[in-house]
Amino acid sequence: MALTAETESRLYRSLRVAAGAAAHLVALGFPTAVAVLARPGSSLFSWHPLLMALAFSFLMTEALLIFSPEASVLRSFSRKVRVRAHWALQLLALLCALLGLGIITYNKHLNGKGHFVTWHGLTGLLAVLYAGGQCAGGVLLLYPKLMKNWTLAKLKLYHATSGLVGYLLGCASLMLGMCSLWFTTTVTGASWYLAMLCPLLTSLVIMNQVSNAYLYRKRSQH
Predict the structure, then answer these.
(1) Rounded to 5°, angle at Cα 131 from 130 and 137
(2) Which of 7, 83, 101, 111 could form a disulfide with 3 if both were Cys (CB 3.0 to 4.6 A apart)?
């Protein structure tokens, strides 16, 4: 029996709601699991995985989901409130990422190890620098008059698209970190594959959200 357009729409919305709920759970659950594994405070290094997981798994995911009509925990609030919450979460994510980067850099210095000599290190550095640039670019949305030749709609679209790239970089850094010696000796078997699925799941949800926002904007222009 063929599904009606209304039934398909309801089914699609239900799937998006379920995916958003799963993303919230993963965004919180992954850093929690990392905290249990790393035991922050047991060593200087122990703060690095926790801070990076908080930055790119929890804070940044929640900052992007805030604008999701199905998954936002603030969907009943005004857009102005959601924008401010987005800014706060992104700045906290950047702060955690900078602290995590500083800690691992100093820890390598203390142990006489090379800096940014692995794919994880290089991707992590790029993700943190990109996050800083993305936050700076977000200022243009608060003061669009600084870009006189750009419409606010275009600025929002490019900010969302570039933000997706930065988020994917952060998730890639997390996944590469799970290939490190520290993680692979601590987490093995099915648990390792399950951990790898966490940033992959949130990436798919965020990509779907951004693509839907783009399609909605395209339709509204016609």
Answers:
(1) 90
(2) 7
